[in-house]
Amino acid sequence: MQRIYIFKRFERFWHWSQALLIALMVLSGFEIHGTYALLGFEDAVTVHTTSAWVLIGLWVFAIFWHLTTGEWRQYIPTTEKLLAMVRYYMTGIFTNAPHPFRVTGLSKHNPLQRLAYLVFKLVIAPALWITGLLYLYYNAWEAWGLGGLDLETVALVHTAAAFLMVVFFVGHVYMAFSGQSPFAHLKAMITGWEEVEDENEA
After folding, report:
1. pTM of the model
2. How confident is the model at residue 126 (pLDDT cuts 50, 70, 90)?
3. Exposed/middle/buried for residue 25 (C-beta within 10 Å: 0-12, 13-18, 19+)
């Protein structure tokens, strides 16, 4: 085994901050919808709105960082080894089959991860932000020429996107424990260092 430095300090900060903010938004959002009572409606709205603005700010900075460092290339989708990854997660992971993807500093995400992140960035996140901001600024719709929009539809799309976010989040947590050891990926996202097999061991 060899250790390679995969996740830079900002990536780790961004990852954990984003995870915390998303968790706060999910918990407060479902309370706003009346699923349970924990903080109280007003406090839940405050937590939800504040977390959303902080996350927007974090994303703006993260987009700038990805563009200036070239790390955006890590998310370009590919079909290379895609079917092998599907087979691995369907059966191979349960039979100790060798992992078909080799992590490197230039290729941190396997093909399925890249597709998942693409759906997150192009579908889930935009749906949440657009409907969330529309919901927040409902009173300005007329001034913006959006009077024809239906608030109930906006709320339904926002809630549907929130459920997709929960699915993504749960899947992400599950995959975090599917490394060489149960905590290998988690450790890498804390320290930045990933343990991978040597070429002659693979």
Report:
1. 0.83
2. very high
3. buried
